[in-house]
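Protein modeling request. Please complete all fields; requests missing the sequence field cannot be processed.
Requester role: graduate student
Desired output: 3D structure, token encoding
Chains: 1
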Amino acid sequence: MSGHSKWASIKHQKGVADAKRGQLFTKLTQEIIVAVHEGGNNPTTNFRLRLAIQRARDNSMPSDNIERAIKRGSGEIEGASLVEMALEGYGPSGAAILVQALTDNRNRTLQDVRNIFSRGGGSMGESGCVAWIFDSKGLIAIKINDLDAEDLALQAIDTGAEDVLIENGCVEIYTKPDELEMVRTALEQKGLAIASAELSMVPKTMVELDEKAALQALKLLDKLEELDEVQHVSSNADFSDSILERYQSQV
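Delivered output (251 residues):
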């Protein structure tokens, strides 16, 4: 794999504790609703729903919230209908940015995303302008803690992982999208604690930014993530450890 999901890496390293819990639950609820609407309310036959429920559990979302979201998706509980949106654009110095959203108001979400791009030194682009830069991959994160990172990486490869990255106290395991669940299950059977597992858009190539552009880009990505309707933000910007440390000290 020529590139890794650097922005996804940063989020895993920051950890769930840094997230706004209520906002996170909103995003997880929306994903469950759309998954049910798309493939039904049976997790056994609906892969997307199984993944959404597992993500909710990974983030300590209460079972009652999960059940309500499933009922909303199946129509048992009334609620606004949600549609999926993929919005594309460029950040500072031309870094590619892909925004995946779930919303009940396309125009409002489009305007909110456009405003953030504009204020953050970026610009919205036409549909398809940057999507080709990314591949859909399964991404599993395991915190190293007291584990042997090299041994953990070998175990991941043995379970079917395509690629493994060891970085800043975390092992990131990349899989084919349809093998994410299989690899996760195999790792759990080995007694490994999974920090997160999700489908991620991974860049084929990365771009290096100078310090000013990198700090601008990080702020732009964070602002996009803060929108309730935005589920995932992907970028091919490459951030050095020193830039990340400086940015963290400013927020």
